[in-house]
Amino acid sequence: MSKTKNVMKLAGLCALLLSLHANAGMIEKALIAGQHTDVGTVKVSDDGNHICVQMSTEGNYKMQAVHIAVVAETDEFTTNKKGLPMIGHFSVNESFGEPQSSFETCFSMADLGLSLGDMSFVAAHAEVVELAFPPITDDDLANLMLPSQVQIIPSRPGTGFGDPSYWDVEILDSDLAGDYDGWCVDTSRTLSGNQQYTADVFSSYDQNANTMIDKPENLPEVNWLVNQDFVGQAAPGPCTGNYTMGDVQRTIWELVDDNSSTAGLGPWDACRAEQIEAAAIANGSDFVPQCGDTLAIVLKPYTSNGSLRQIIIHQILVAELPLVCDPEIVGEETAWGDGIEGTPFNPDKSWSKYFKYTIME
Q1: pLDDT tens-digit series, residues 130-144
Q2: Could you tell me the pTM of the whole model?
Q3: What is the pLDDT of residues 243-285, one digit of tens each?
Q4: Could you tell me which CATH number the domain at 26-133+329-358 has?
Q5: Cross-strand bridge partners of residue 70
Q6: Where, residue-wise, is CATH 2.60.40 in the chain?
Q7: Which helix (H) or strand (E) segment is 121 a member of?
Q8: Is residue 41 helix, strand or coil?
């Protein structure tokens, strides 16, 4: 029994030593902005020849500039007569045209006069901005600057540019040029796949779209629905299986068209479609997509036939348009990798920090 215990203790010691070795050569410090706010991390590691410093921010915080110094002795940090770090004289000084969420740089150990097992000192400074997206209103979406007409090529079946969809819609030469998931909102007209059409374009929050749709008052619910990524999710009881493209399309018809259909749905289930519809009605009546969400845009495709140029309007579609916004800067702070205040920095004049890093042997 005693021998067994000793073996177990030895195995535990070996595991501990292995764990400690695996964690050597890398440390992580919080990136602190304005002395109190944790906005990211500073990670330091080495490969035996280089010391690498990686700075990253999280959430709405990004870096406009970074200043990094790695030294063998603390008196090698450049400071002024008051003991304040002169970040402009640090080894790395980088400013970014667009705020960044990550930055990495490496230092030659030989150039720093450092060897395996030596202790080094790291000062990592960043100029940090806090970003926020302005709120979007339904009036903003109603007056969204969209091209009045585009050329489109719809295709079926909608294998999906994102999730599977009833239509895949390619929009040609315009500000909207690209590939989109699309849905039918009109069962009374037909549309041929892989044919080019001219299409009028409307935001689904534009009153001008109302005349083309039987129940336009439910378009906010459709916008909520296309932002939920139902396709592929498991349906809760009492329904069974995963939500399908057919379930979503059937729900859209129930929400906005006077006549529903089963045309082209593929696998679908009434129970699942009713679940989606109930959720859309419960959650989507006041829904307004925000930055990063998807906006349903209404496409009215048509062709002109014969000498009289008779206009034939085809099946009305909605396409999923991602809402991309430019964030606003709502705050600016200086940030340091968390560590030691004091020598060589003057804590009475600045909260500048540095920390120690031991190179892995």
Answers
A1: 999 889 999 999 999
A2: 0.69
A3: 999 999 999 999 999 998 998 899 999 999 999 999 999 999 9
A4: 2.60.40
A5: 122
A6: 26-133+329-358
A7: strand 119-132
A8: strand
